[in-house]
Design brief:
The structure is a single chain. The chain has about 140 residues and is an all-beta fold. It is about 0% helix and about 75% strand. It has one domain. Strands 1, 5, 6, 7, 8, 9, 10 and 11 form an eight-stranded antiparallel sheet that branches. It has a three-stranded antiparallel sheet with strand order 2-3-4, with no helix packed on it.
Amino acid sequence: NCFIDQSDLALTAAGGRRQILSWMESVGLMGLHHQGQFYEFAPWNAKINWQVSPWGEWWMEARNATHHLELWATCDRPGKLLRAPTQAGLVYICRDTMFGHLKLRLKRLHPQGSALILQANSKACGLEVGGQPWQDSWIRST
């Protein structure tokens, strides 16, 4: 991703379903690098929520003991259909774009509330959905 007026900023955010033996679970993570600092939001240290439409809208938020990160992303283009690995081999089940619009906000939490650390925007954000065809928004919390 490329952020407007923020050359030292990188974001990774993902949500997915994974299977371990017969057990299925939804997992998510968010990681933000900004000015030499790494902000980690993962199942072992944060509460993560997301809502993803079949295509065009993404929302995620994560909160750990010290920080809160929230992002909103949209894409008004159809995206590109890509192959992804499955048990049946590579199959066209992934849609991808590098033309996403993203807005993010990072806050530091303290007993009196929160303080804004960073607000950033991108018009060149990588966005993706994949898996079996789905018609409704995917809403999860971890």
